[in-house]
Specification:
The chain is an alpha/beta fold. It has helices at residues 9-39, 47-71, 108-111, 123-128, and strands at 5-7, 73-75, 90-96, 99-105, 116-118, 136-140, 146-156. The protein has a 5-stranded mixed sheet with strand order 5-4-3-7-6. The chain has a two-stranded parallel sheet with strand order 1-2. The chain is elongated and about 65 Å long. This is Transcription elongation factor GreA.
């Protein structure tokens, strides 16, 4: 099953602003740090140089991640799920292991810290993906514990 990532306009704008910052001022700042550390001399034992290079690598990885996400996402409101089938980008209310919970099935970038977020590739994500509202499924954790999940409500994140 190929999943489509839906981003709200707000999430897309937030990610685009982060990308613009990383590609502009942040990139210039890290280059300045690297040049200053390089000017200090011996690069083998220069902790500031190695830290700046590591920071640059992480920043470039984040830039690639943001570009990929923005290029491969749909912006707007996903089509209504007439059939009540759970899919990526949905906020799910469920009883998980006996406790009521609410979480987003998708990407952390969509929710910006408002909800617990589980990837559709996580154990719980794989268990609920494609399930209908009202159904109960179970999955086994890495420690061997079986967790039951009863879907009580689901709607697309707005």
């Amino acid at each position: 099953m190929t999943s489509q990532t839906w981003l709200t306009q707000e999430a897309a704008d937030r990610l685009a602003a982060e990308l613009a910052h990383l590609e502009g001022p942040a990139r210039h700042e890290i280059v300045t740090k690297i040049e200053a550390a390089r000017a200090e001399g011996d690069l083998k034992e220069n902790g500031g140089y190695h830290a700046a290079r590591e920071e640059q690598g992480k920043m470039e990885a984040r830039i690639r991640q943001l570009k990929h996400m923005l290029a491969n996402s749909h912006i707007g409101t996903p089509p209504a799920s007439e059939s009540g089938v759970i899919g990526p980008g949905m906020v799910i209310s469920a009883i998980v292991g006996g406790s009521e919970t609410k979480f987003l099935l998708g990407s952390r970038e969509i929710a910006s810290g408002e909800l617990d977020v589980y990837s559709e590739n996580s154990l719980i994500g794989q268990a609920v993906l494609g399930v209908k509202i009202g159904e109960t499924v179970s999955y086994t954790t890495l420690t061997g514990k079986v967790i039951t999940v009863e879907i009580t409500h689901a709607e697309y994140f707005a």
